[in-house]
Design goal:
Strand content: under 5%
Largest sheet: none
Radius of gyration: 19 Å
Order of helices and strands: HHHHHHH
Structural class: mainly alpha
Shape: globular
Distance between the termini: 44 Å
């Protein structure tokens, strides 16, 4: 029951007091219920993303002066709601939709920025994100990819390494120091983005396995919302990484 997704950890389905798997005979978590709730969260995200996109441009097609409020408001609000959901999983039926709404503002605004800089990049990133989702879901359900223990450990280790690199980037950036090459549009930067995308995509496999295990263990019904929330976190990460990769590729032209 291990997932590389930081919001879906070994202890998610465990009772903190007894250390045993939380199980309910009635109203238990199901895969179909999680899928339906994931679709609902995606719908909420699209709605607020479309609104933020519409507010990001002026009548002349330029970026509106105050569009950054959606970027920072959505990013900070989404981070706070994600933390609340992680530590209060039983609140997921409320906090997961709130996270989707707030994260939509961030995604709509950041997508508008990338679209302003590189025409057509947003639709390409959306198609790549959902193409990756359905391809890996098909591969997982077909048994072509199995979430073995070694597979899980490798993905978790790589995810942790990427998180440390991004954390170092933020901290060093506060002092005006940039990590060379990996964030540029050179071969190293593009290779780094491809590596991150592969790891983000493999996290989807771990998420599928984690949700399936939760359903088999009879986790409580609210865990459907939590599972959908965890899947959304990975999809947002994957989409942002596709945007970054496509931007690096187009900036080379």
């Amino acid at each position: 029951m291990r997932s590389g997704n930081p919001v879906l950890s070994d202890s998610t389905f465990l009772d903190l007091g007894s250390g045993t798997v939380v199980s309910r005979d009635a109203g238990a978590m199901t895969i179909n219920g999680t899928v339906n709730k994931t679709a609902f969260l995606l719908l909420l995200t699209v709605l607020t993303a479309a609104f933020a996109w519409s507010q990001a441009f002026t009548a002349a097609g330029e970026l509106a002066p105050g569009f950054s409020i959606y970027v920072w408001g959505g990013a900070i609000g989404g981070f706070i709601l994600a933390l609340v959901t992680v530590f209060k999983k039983e609140w997921a039926p409320v906090t997961a939709p709130m996270y989707a709404l707030v994260e939509g503002f961030f995604l709509g605004a950041i997508s508008a920025l990338y679209s302003h800089l590189y025409e057509g990049i947003v639709m390409q990133a959306v198609m790549l994100t959902f193409g990756t989702l359905f391809a890996l879901l098909f591969a997982y359900r077909s048994g072509w990819i199995k979430a073995t223990e070694n597979f899980k450990l490798g993905v978790i280790a790589a995810t942790g390494g990427i998180a440390l690199v991004y954390l170092a980037t933020i901290v060093l950036g506060l002092f005006g120091i940039n990590i060379p090459m990996i964030h540029d549009n050179g071969i190293v930067g593009i290779g780094f983005s491809l590596f991150v995308i592969v790891i983000a995509a493999l996290n989807l496999v771990l998420d599928f396995d984690f949700i399936e295990t939760g359903a088999e263990q009879g986790a409580p019904k609210y865990m459907e919302w939590y599972g959908a929330f965890g899947l959304m976190v990975t999809l947002v990460w994957l989409y942002i990484e596709f945007l970054r990769l496509l931007a690096k590729l187009q900036s080379r032209n």
